[in-house]
Amino acid sequence: MKKALAILATAALLGGGLAVLGVAEDTKAERKPAPGGAAQNSKDARRLAGTIKSGAPDRIVVSARGKEWTFAVDAKTAITREGSAVSATDVKAGETVRVWYTTQDGKMVAQRVAVRPGDAAGRMSNPGAAQKPANPCAPKR
Q1: DSSP character for 130?
Q2: What b/e readout covers 7-45, taking b as 16+ CB neighbours within 10 angstroms?
Q3: With contact defined as beta carbons under 8 Å apart, do 86 and 122 qualify?
Q4: Are 114 and 98 in contact (CB under 8 A)?
Q5: pTM: predicted TM-score of the whole model, two decimal places
Q6: 122: left (phi over 0), alpha (psi -120 to 50) or beta
Q7: In a 10 Å sphere around its CB, with 0-12 CB exposed, 13-18 middle and 19+ buried, how is residue 128 labelled?
Q8: Three-class SS of residue 33?
Q9: What are the per-10-residue average pLDDT scores of the chain (141 residues)?
């Protein structure tokens, strides 16, 4: 009798676990991509950091990872420099940027562009690291 009860309990637990897996699988199946490949949320956007090659009213070209990337810019694209809104024509060659983009109809469309302060080589500036304090334990020269 105990053995039959143990088998029945085990079967009930396994059946419940499989039912939970089935519900989770159904939830995933309900997700559908947005029409036209547009981003539903920020998780759908990709990010790229690089250096501006050129800017035009309808696009920006970024140099990163050893190649050039062209991003379409539209009225929804938010472009900022140090917190202030700017246009695609305001970005200058050599400026460091971070671009969040999605792919729509085979084109990379910039959703957000953050222009970051940098030096001529495109490295991020760090005003706090400009001068290190002298090490008091170092030998004097």
Answers
A1: S
A2: eeeeeeeeeeeeeeeeeeeeeeeeeeeeeeeebeeeeeb
A3: no
A4: yes
A5: 0.55
A6: left
A7: exposed
A8: coil
A9: 68 57 42 40 79 94 95 95 92 94 94 80 50 74 70
pLDDT of residue 30: 41
Number of DSSP helices (H) and strands (E) in the chain, helices first: 1, 7
Could you tell me which of 115, 123, 124, 103 has the C-alpha nearest to residue 52? 115
Task: Read off the tokens for 40.
Answer: 């539903």
Task: Report pLDDT for 102.
Answer: 95
pLDDT given for residue 12 in this prediction: 65
CATH number for the domain formed by residue range(s) 43-116? 2.40.50.320
Domain ranges of the chain: 43-116
Angstrom distance (rounded) from CA 135 to CA 121: 29
Distance CA 29, CA 81 (A): 40
